[in-house]
Amino acid sequence: MGTAPAIMLRDDAALRVFDTGQGGLAIVFQHGLGGDAAQVAQNLPDSPSRRRLTVECRAQGGSGAGSKRPFSIAMFADDVLAAADAARLDRFVAGGISMGAAIGVNLASRYPERVIGLVLVRPAWAFEAAPQNMRPYVEVAGLIRDRPLDEARDAFATSATAARFRAEAPDNLASLLGFFARENATVFAEVMQAIANDGAGVTQAAASGLAIPTLVVGSGVDLVHPLAIARSLADAIPDAAFVEVTPKAADKDRHFTEVRAAIARFLDDRFNNQDQS
């Protein structure tokens, strides 16, 4: 993200925090499950008029897991808010990719006085906990927990779930197979199991009360982040705009270019690059 991370201690977890430290409009933007600050940089456009802050969530990126359990979206949101407090960001646009989008919605619902807008990229949760589209993460976590890693990966690669993803969403499959190669695969399996079975903690009625500018970005050829979830969030939040972009599975470079362009247009149009503190 162009800056060296700071370390924030939360309980006994050492979390990496990336903060550009410049710009009037603050954007607190989070990665997806298993992602890191580099994933944020792929999706969020840089601008000297905007300041961005990202926390690498527990057991992800370069952050430690700590001993506090259970992992949850609300726990990660609390960590993010603590980082915003430490950076003296009183009001900010919140959001992120997939799990990061759920963290943003959670923050907007719980702290409406702090969140002035939302950017939700490829959301995986709408209003229910443990959605069906997150079941493959539970399956992967169970295999990692119960078998040696090589055996676990082979079992998943030959499973019915993998066959479906190979045919319908190869980009998702590549991500799922990558989890077996993580250095912290065992502890990350705890994260996957807990987060996949969790929810954003926001009902449809609560979403209809989010009276803030919102951008929802969705794409097809994606079984983990169905377009239907993105559309349902955009339909529920009163001041939401929906943009469909090229699927990652079709053209990754074009996908990220379109995501960054959609976010830049939204921020320029709705916040006019002004200081919102």
Automatic annotation (TrEMBL):
Keywords: Hydrolase. The keyword Hydrolase applies. Gene3D superfamilies: alpha/beta hydrolase. One of its GO terms (molecular function) is hydrolase activity. Residues 26-249 form the AB hydrolase-1 domain. PANTHER family: AB HYDROLASE-1 DOMAIN-CONTAINING PROTEIN, HYDROLASE, ALPHA/BETA FOLD FAMILY PROTEIN. This is Alpha/beta hydrolase. It comes from Mesorhizobium qingshengii.
